[in-house]
Amino acid sequence: MDINYNTDVIVVGAGPCGVSAALEVARGGKKVVLIDRAKYAGSKNMYGGAIYKTALQEIFQEDFETLPYERIINSHSWAFLTDTGSCSITFQDETNSEAYAIKRFNLEKWMIEIAKKKGVYFAPNTLVKKLIQKDGYVVGVETELEEYYAPIVILADGVNSLLAKELNLREKYQPKDVILSVKETIKLDKKTIEERFNLKEDLTNGVTKMYLGNPKDTNAIFMMGFLYTFKDTLMLGVGANLADLAKNKLNINDLLEYLKNHNDIKPLIKDGQILEYSAHLIPETGYNKMPKLTDNGVIIAGDAAGFINSVHFEGTNYALISGKLAGKTALSALENSNYSQGFLSLYKKELDKSFILKDLYTYRNIIDRLYDRRSSIMNYYPYKIKEFFEIVTSANCKSKSVQFRNYLLSFLKDRNLKELVKDGFAAFRCVLDIFFGR
Ligand SMILES: Cc1cc2nc3c(=O)[nH]c(=O)nc-3n(C[C@H](O)[C@H](O)[C@H](O)COP(=O)(O)OP(=O)(O)OC[C@H]3O[C@@H](n4cnc5c(N)ncnc54)[C@H](O)[C@@H]3O)c2cc1C
Predict the structure, then answer these.
(1) Ligand 1 and 183: CB distance under 6 A
(2) Is residue 342 part of a domain?
């Protein structure tokens, strides 16, 4: 092909995925241009708050030591909410240091500085408008200002990936395929956070809380709230399935207000000042709706490919590692001067060997199974857990046997047997999915 390439690889999107891909290419000694539409790296991005050590160490190696995190998160709790209270499980261990609370802006700034030092050319404030194609191959990108040409383009442009859609690499998302999420950054002084969450001054511990359960008068909505402790801010947010929100004519903000006024959460955020409000989508397409990952001259990675495991709140690690594998594939293609879809399918083989496609395969039906049973998970069992603990904790001078018997029989009274069997079957199949996963 007669094209004047001005670089070896173009990466669109400077989130964790794009930076990791660009870094891999630069480490391989090739020229790479990393493009992002945001004026400042990270200013268009949003997440809950935790990034994970193993993937960071793999990508940033010795530079990991300089990560500007705010707290190490070593207390994780999951709470089932009822309108008036909650039942929660906490896992807390100071030796557990996989998750770090870090603001997205600081994370991206740090990642890009490292990438630039390793030779990545970074073009901020540059929107990629379309891909340039010739003879059936992607050969570059057109931005508002100029055109860049390279034999390989890596799409790391996040959940909306208009460029992947342009190439028909993936289908248009349906509302059920995405979670709409909103988050507030709430300022409190450091000491108040430490007192409220029982944290140390030296920032060596931090907390994350996940909340499940719908407001009582709401139809079943697949939703999850989250709260992360930072140095002198809290991140409080909620995500809900877009189809459920639309069906119930509910605004996601109503769910955030519900959490903010809940007895469990209100005291934790009391007197906090809202610094920031942001919204973002999370793909839930998973393994079954995975896009075509490569085409002639192009590779797709990170959120753009739907690589996320929302059951475990993992996304940045999928983005970092898939970016690295995309970069590695680009290097092999350059070495062999072969940019065809056939050659680039090496990327899928690499992903298959990694935790990314193993886990996405294992969880391929779990989200749908949980989604189908959302009325039980969100509207029914939180209240049955509450009833159970009311019996366990009430010294009400009534026969425990009678109370527990009535409690067990109440499952049949207020829920028909068919629904209970479906719940049990769904739970059992989730366990089997994990046991027989890859
Ligand atoms: C509410 C919420 C909470 C989350 N919590 C967590 C968590 O706690 N831990 C975790 O690991 N993950 C979490 N995630 C998921 C995580 O944020 C994503 O998986 C991760 O950011 C994906 O990285 P990425 O690089 O693929 O995409 P992104 O981070 O979305 O980056 C895409 C980049 O592409 C740029 N871009 C897009 N289009 C163009 C274009 N046409 N031209 C130029 N640039 C473009 C954007 O500006 C952006 O910088 C959360 C997500 C949400 C929404």
Answers:
(1) yes
(2) yes
